[in-house]
Design goal:
single chain, 143 residues, alpha+beta, 4-stranded antiparallel β-sheet, 3 helices, 4 strands, elongated
Length: 143
Amino acid sequence: MNEKQIYESQQDDITFLKNKLEKTEVLNDSLSNQIMEVNYFTLQGNDNAMTYFENMGYEAADVENSVREYIYDLNGEAGKNPIVPYDGIEGRMKINKVKFLNHRWVAADFTDGIYWGEMILEYYINNDDSIDLKVIGSLLYGK
């Protein structure tokens, strides 16, 4: 009788774990689809954008790193940040975060510690590997 109870208990455990695995696989598929949707508007999630840079002899990840570092380095320049179209009210405006949308555009946010804003930048890699940036649009928010 004891062996029968052990067997039934193990069968119940197996059934429970199979159901749990099935639910986890469904959740995993759902999350994978969501990630694919979110990553579409990223440089590394857009095959056309990556191919653009590969045809120029660049790796998309290297371009992201170079452009990101260039943008962050502008935070350290003396005076007004050259790419933030607003003067800081409570200090100097600095770029906090950047998000690559594709092979041409970056979304960025900036702040002076109290006031903050967001902008879309156009970036271009020149033949000499220098980087050009142009503000396409921006918004400034209050406290």
